Fold:
Amino acid sequence: MKNAIGVEIPEYIEGLGKLEPFQGVWKSIIEDEVPSTNISRTLKAKKPHVSKLCKNLEEAIKRCKPFDGMTVTCHHHLRGGDGVLMQTIKILDEMGIKDITLASSSLTSAHDGLVPYVEKGMITRIFTSGIRGALGDAISVGKLKYPAIIHSHGGRVRDFLTGRIKPDLSVLAASAADEEGNATGAHGPSAFGSMGYADIDARYSRNVIIVTDNLVEYPCVPCTVRQHFIDYVVKVDSIGDATKIASGTTRITNSPMDLRIARIAATVIEHSGLFKNGMSFQVGAGGASLAVAKFLREDMKRKNIIGSFMIGGVTSYGVDMLNEGLFHSIFDVQSFDAAVSTSVLNNPNHIEISCDQYANPNNCGSMTNKLDVVVLGALEVDVDFNVNVITGSSGEIRGASGGHSDTASGANLTVVVCPAFRGRLPIVKDRVHTVVTPGESVDVIVTERGVCVNPAKPNLAAKLKEAGVQVVDIRDLKEEVEKMTGVPAEKQLGDQIVGLVEYRDGTIIDVIYNVKNLS
Structure:
């Protein structure tokens, strides 16, 4: 069966069940009539003064009575510095647990060590918003038993609430926690900021373990994850390396070309009609998109604009804008810089939120639905404005869906920034290899060689042209770049489905096939 963008979607996949094809942005979500089984975990009673503290993680996991076929979840707030997920899987493997579904909020290079567990069939299913490094390569060539499900951040919450993901064990790192499991990421030697992704795991998992390297006196303040959801608490030497939170995708770029793209994008925002007092704003991961905040900051000061709020992954640069009074508040679901934790701890206008509040399409208060402007990155885009942020030039899985489609679906203005080409590879295609964010929710694509406006937004194109912005037809841009780079050879793919991209409403927007020759 074909979905709304013409991708052939299988009706059923063994181990994953029946699939529903993508029908369009918001097509499957009818206001006041969103179906949800509203899954809720059964809270376990404990007798008075019984300690939740365990001597080590192995003891805590044993107390949770793990079993073959279970679903295990962790969060990725420590990103490349995470040290908890690998410990968890190693212990489960030593206990002989098999056929695990892993549903971590995202998977990074810190999780390259999962490859042997995939190869031997201990981990057979993966649900996540992103996969990188050696694990992405392993899945791309077909080593995972069942296709990986790539969902958005908001889609993950939806999957929990509808029962598509049913967590049996959640092991959650915290930079500070008390003996009852009240926990935070805002202070401690491994402080990493918001715990917005962990909150959903704590609320809906059958068993929850808090792991910390900083056990504090009761009560732990502030308290992001609360004690009545926590079964056991473990003190370890280290939960990971918080200095590795910031990576190439979470730092403002120094590249002259990327800075030029960012400057153009800020100009687009300025002349969009949304650049005014009370605007809300988000930048996604990626050096060029983050750099837009640098220029927006200058423009806001120049025009005395004061925004309402910023949301999403937050950098110290966003904190500076808050402290300068350029925005009234920040709603923080994930901190892209360990330094942000001080602001989370001390500034009442820096508000930590759960991913449910951030981006769940099935609630009446999603922050992405109040968003005016979002700036996002891309690995490649196509002439229909579809965006790929998950597969690389060879078709390998190497990126993250994250909040890309969530924010694009709700924002009044979605701006995608990317170079016209990388190396000798053109970025604008006839069709992207993998659609993560559909073109109907993308308004503008900004490159160093011109700005492409979605034909569905003729008034926006007129405003930008009037302001002197170089607006070009996306097909003309594609032809111009291909004259310089040539047309790349077709990707060498097999016929094995190794991944499914789930749109935020739970429907399947694209299919990823195995890579034959991964260089």
Q: What stands out?
A: The radius of gyration is 22 Å. The longest strand covers residues 493-502. The longest helix spans residues 287-303.
